[in-house]
Amino acid sequence: QVQLVESGGGLVQAGGSLRLSCAASGGIFSISAMGWYRQAPGKQREFVAIITARYITGYADSVKGRFTISLDNAKNTVYLQMNNLKPEDTAVYYCNLKYGERNYWGQGTQVTVSS
Asked: What is the largest CA-CA distance in the chain?
């Protein structure tokens, strides 16, 4: 079974940095894309960043210039480098995998940014 395991969340002061990682496993040989979404309390899950197997990236306007997504295609692992974090970035961050005709989700990792 395809599984996504996330790590790197935690508590950080405003202006600080965190790096999230998400490793996909379960007999995966070639992904289509991996990305990150987040959900803050009382809000809908929202898109954050995406990267394709051809290393084409896309970002939400709210994180553009602060976050960087990267992909180790050979390891089926996606990273999210988050710099200059703001309290509004506080959310549960979910890894997403597009593989074949399916979308898969990680369990979520909490990011809390204190002011």
From this structure: 42
Which tokens in the block code for residue 57?
């990236």
Q: What is the 3-state secondary structure (H, E, C) of 45-91?
A: CEEEEEEECCCCEEECCCCCCCEEEEEEHHHCEEEEEECCCCHHHCE
- Tell me, what's the pLDDT at 100? 83
Q: pLDDT (tens digit, 9 = 90+) per residue, 39-68?
A: 999 999 999 999 999 999 999 999 999 999
Mean pLDDT of the chain: 95
Q: Per DSSP, what are the bridge partners of residue 96?
A: 35, 105
Pairing of strands 10-13, 109-114: parallel
Give the whole-angstrom CA distance, residue 93 versus residue 84: 17
